[in-house]
Amino acid sequence: MLGKRTCVERSKHSFIVYGDNCYHCIIVNDRHENVIQYREGWCYSKQAALEDMCQNIKSDDTLYSMFRVNSKPIPCPFSGPSFTFTYEKGYGECAMPVSLGEKCTDESKLLLKYQACPDVERSESNTEELQCLAVWNDGRNKYLVGTLKGRSVSGSEKTYRCFLYEEKTHHQGKVVYLLAQSGEPTCNGLTTVSEGSPTIKLMKVDKEHNRCKYPSWITEHHDWHSLDGTKVYHFTNKNATLKVRVQDTEGDTFHEEKIVCHNLEKLHPTDNSQGYKIKLIAHVTSGCDIGYVCMIFHKRDQHVIELQQSNQKAIMPDEACSLSDTSAMPYTTLISSSLRQRKCPNPGRYVIVGFAPFHLPNTSFRRQRRSDKRSSRLIKRRAWNDDMQQMKPHEQQQRQHQSQQQQHHHHHHHHQHGGEQQQQQQQDQHGEECKSTDVQIGCTSSDQNEIVVRKTCDPEETTYNCHGSWEEKGTWYTIVSQKTNQAAAGLGQTFCFSMRFDDKTDKPPTTGKASRTKLSEQELWVTRLDRVCRRETAGEDEWSHRLVGKGVCEDVTKAASSLASLFSLSRILLVVTVGNCAAYKYLLR
Q1: What are the DSSP calls for 196-208, one per residue?
Q2: What is the pLDDT of residue 232?
């Protein structure tokens, strides 16, 4: 069947078809599995011998082209990952600024980024995605059939186009492809590469010499992953290409990105990071989403790096770092697959104050008047180990009941302010023995790499291993994993929390018993465990715990001596948080 016509006789490439009271001869050219091309003869009212009906078809008769629907694409016939190109639509060549052609992750697709030339009529900025479906030779002529998909909302539909193309070597030794594009979904009228709608001149770009290498402190570990395991970064052996596997928001699907280092950028002289901070422009290919991004890598610890990346892709490399504000670029914390245990920051014995053993929903605080915020702060403190531990069903019911009681209690006492009254309410409700939670940072081993959290009325304790920490603008960030019986912490078992110093206290005395007594006045604000390291810009509703220092680790003598010197350099009041510092100072008065 061909439309309404039915085949009645065939001989190799010649067919007699009948339809609309006509017999036609059709001669089919075998081009490619995705393309049928044919010419047809006159209309005969009666069927005659096949040879007689077909002999009057000439090679200059109309050629009809048919393209297979849902055909399997082929790799595009242009060698090289990227090209610059000029184009012409009949009003002069658009060569300045030059346009860019880039291969997508899928080699059957070529992204054509047309730039507008101010002095050439009908030239315009546009991005088209060419998918190659078939190539064949007809004598000396080379043909390509593909679909074009525009990037504008209206032009998201695919249109079939035929191209006549020729490969030439430029006088400078560069490979050039000349293309003439058909104006319609047919190959008719394509007789020379210099006439088309438009004509395109692709020039191969040799990018190899322009590549830079990622620094050795990143590539010494070939594999990195985000704390929640949704992003996996792999460096190839030559250290110039980074392959990223990103889990999409649905959770089951992945997409891959290829990030090639393009050139290293100079950092501002005030960025004194001992060479552990690097800014670079990289070329990103993610499917057909292609462009240049600005990236900043920070070395945080032996097995911890952080990455900032601009979310906008620039067409030209020079624009990548100027398009976005680098200080506002979000951080991605990455850990190497071979995590080691590291010393925890600010070792000592602490107790969590204002411990509420239940979880209040955030919504109950958002509608409060400002004066209520102070008293609600302490209710919101949640025991650290509650962040991670799964509760048994009967405990959940019990806690829901307590939560409702406490909310009711809170609404009737919102005129009471200050930590003492709040604590008193909790003691009345939960009993004296359960009012606090002990936290020991770096006290249980000589390596000082464990944090142990234990409620005073609960024999079970939760242990976290520290895997690296760093200080930034007065905040300490620490990567931890919950210690289990299994040999290694699996993907997604790693967390980040932060602690913050407070600026309003004086330095403690440095010698003897005086420093010991001052140590017990240490206070910390600690954020809840999270899958990302949140910066100060995190919302005020961030869960926090107030830790009061109970002195040094007595059972580790090394820790005590190192602590005295550590605290002599620091402030008495150590506050750890993410969020609005002013609100905490207000609370601590």
Answers
A1: SSSEEEEEE---G
A2: 94
Whole-number Å distance between alpha carbons of 475 and 497: 10
Q: Which of 298, 304, 294, 278 is nearest to 221 (CA)?
A: 304
Burial of 286 (0-12, 13-18, 19+ CB in 10 A): middle
Distance CA 373, CA 365 (A): 8
pLDDT at residue 549 is higher than 60: yes
Q: Which residues pair with 103 in a beta bridge?
A: 110
Phi, psi values for residue 280, rounded to 5°: -150, 160
Instruction: Compare 499 and 394 and report the one with higher pLDDT.
Output: 499
- Angle (CA) 499 504 507, round 5°: 85
Burial class (CB in 10 A: 0-12, 13-18, 19+), 566: middle
421: which 2 tokens? 């009254």
Query: Which residue from 359, 280, 358 is spatially nearest to 320, judged by alpha carbons?
Result: 280
Stated length of the chain? 589
The pLDDT value given to residue 164:
95
Whose CA is closest to 438, among 348, 358, 318, 345? 348
pLDDT, tens digit (0-9, with 9 covering 90-100), for 327-372: 888 899 999 988 888 999 989 888 887 654 322 222 222 233 333 4
More confident site: 423 or 546: 546
Asked whether the beta carbons of 235 and 214 are under 8 A apart, the reply is yes
Average pLDDT, the chain: 76
